[in-house]
Amino acid sequence: MSRIGIMSAMVEEMNILLKSIKNEKIETIGQREYHTGKLFDNDVVLVFSRWGKVAASSTTTTLINNFRVDKIIFTGVAGAINNKLNIGDIVIAKNLYQHDFDASPLLNKHVLPHINKKEIPTNKALNTQLIKSAKQFIATQLNNTITNNELDVFNISTPEIVYGNIASGDQFIKTSNQRELIRTELNEVEAVEMEGGAVAQICYEYNIPLAVIRTISDKAGSDAAIDFPRFVENIAGKYSYKIIENLLSEIN
Ligand code: ADE
């Protein structure tokens, strides 16, 4: 039977999902707690990825080798690189880059050694199901899940769902210089975060289907600081919960 690894970049997101897990068992490996059990009738392993590419790749490898997951869904928040994106929009990754990887002059900037390419694609079939689950959430469940007051606090009205590229690196992007560098160097990047590219590299090497979904939490350098814990708890965590519920009902 299929076993799905669900990695959350924010511990608050995982905690919301854990409220619905059945037959939960917890195993600690390398300071990470892996929660196995049933979620919406599927065998799952939930884990907090921890932050950054090194941490997330180690968590991914343990999910694959110790817990034998046969697919991985990654959820979290991201900063917008595309100017058209707003806080509360959703990006589903088509390809993932590592924007801070640079082995030049041995390899062109961003080319990953051994794999010999810059971008790693996610799994098409999972993406199709994830896009459908996200559309269902925005069209029919958003307003029953999150209060208008909470949506207003973050200026969210009709969130967009974008299927496009995401770049990852070991930096929180907070200045317009950092942001412009990523935009000019990499092709059509929608959003930036700190784990997806690393998880994609491991999944590619182990041939494990992967999907990555991120809620835009900030504009990567060109906005005032938002209340991050409030955003994750009241917006991004609820998005993830409902979208994962829709997806697992579909997969089942
Ligand atoms: N995750 C959410 N916002 C981010 C940003 N601006 N840079 C990197 N990772 C992020």
What is the CATH superfamily classification?
Nucleoside phosphorylase domain
Secondary structure: helix percent: 25-40%
Strand order of the largest sheet: 5-9-8-6-10
- State Rg: 17 Å
What is CATH's topology name? Answer: Rossmann fold
The ligands found in this model are:
adenine
CATH class equals Alpha Beta
Low-confidence stretches: none
What can be said about the biggest beta sheet?
A: 5 strands, mixed, barrel
Mean pLDDT: 96
Which range does the strand content fall in? 25-35%
Give a quick set of tags describing it.
252 residues, Rossmann fold, five-stranded mixed β-barrel, 10 strands, 37% helix, globular, binds adenine
Describe this protein's structure.
The protein is of the alpha/beta class. The chain has one domain (4-251): Nucleoside phosphorylase domain (Rossmann fold). The protein has helices at 11-18, 53-65, 124-145, 148-153, 176-185, 196-206, 228-251, and strands at 3-8, 22-29, 32-39, 42-48, 71-80, 90-98, 120-121, 161-168, 189-193, 210-218. Helix 1 packs across helix 7 (228-251), helix 2 (53-65) packs parallel to helix 6 (196-206) and helix 3 (124-145) crosses helix 7 (228-251). Bound molecules: adenine. The site of adenine (ADE) has 11 residues, from strand 5, strand 9 and strand 10.
